[in-house]
Amino acid sequence: MTDAFWMHRALALADQAEAEGEVPVGAVLVLEGEAVGEGWNGSISATDPTAHAEVRALRAAARRLDNYRLPGTTLYVTLEPCVMCAGAIIHARVARVVFGAADPKGGAAGSVFNVLGTDRLNHRVQCEGGLLAGEAARCLQRFFRERRRPLSRQGTVCGRDGANNLTK
């Protein structure tokens, strides 16, 4: 299966996040052509600042493989990983990261920081950005545009009311 195939799967997981009122980011971790972990953003609903798509995918894979190290894996994620996720990726010994949209405000794979590309740490991660970037960026832009709409025009978006509270 191709990188594009797995990025489409990550985009579908981003849709799941959006449906739950979360920032639409999805991630899938692949080993030898098989998905071993998937995740989507869940920080809001889980009240957990570490519940990013990448961390959730790494946790799922570690449980499935019964190992906190995930060598030989490729992580596909719709948005460039942040510093926290980059650290988790390095500690898990992920071999490769492929991301969609760059994150000019917090990306740690070259946009703001280059945590994944530094030679100062004990593990190197091969990193490629820009795969299906337009599609990933449009998903995020749509989500945030909807959240910024005035309350009078907003209504319920992604299971949330205009005050960013969960609706029942």
What does this structure look like?
With 168 residues, the protein is of the alpha/beta class. The radius of gyration is 16 Å and the shape is globular. The model is unreliable at 155-168 (pLDDT under 50). Helix 1 packs parallel to helix 5 (133-148). The protein starts with a helix and ends in a 14-residue tail after the last helix. The chain has helices at 3-19, 43-46, 53-65, 83-92, 133-148, 151-154, and strands at 26-31, 34-40, 74-79, 96-101, 126-129. The chain has 6 helices and 5 strands, in the order H-E-E-H-H-E-H-E-E-H-H.
Question: How do the helices and strands line up, and which of them pair or pack?
Answer:
Blueprint: H1 3-19, E1 26-31, E2 34-40, H2 43-46, H3 53-65, E3 74-79, H4 83-92, E4 96-101, E5 126-129, H5 133-148, H6 151-154
Parallel strand pairs: 3-4, 4-5
Antiparallel strand pairs: 1-2, 1-3
Helix pairs in contact: 1-5
Largest sheet: 5 strands, mixed
Oligomer status:
single chain
Radius of gyration over alpha carbons?
16 Å
Structural class: alpha/beta
Give the strand tally: 5
Share of β-strand residues = 15-25%
> Could you tell me how far the N terminus lies from the C terminus, measured between alpha carbons in angstroms?
40 Å
Question: Quick one: overall form?
Answer: globular
Strand order of the largest sheet: 2-1-3-4-5
Poorly predicted regions: 155-168
The number of helical elements comes to: 6
Quick synopsis:
With 168 residues, this protein is of the alpha/beta class.
What are the salient characteristics of this protein?
6 helices, single chain, 5 strands, 168 residues, globular, alpha/beta, five-stranded mixed β-sheet
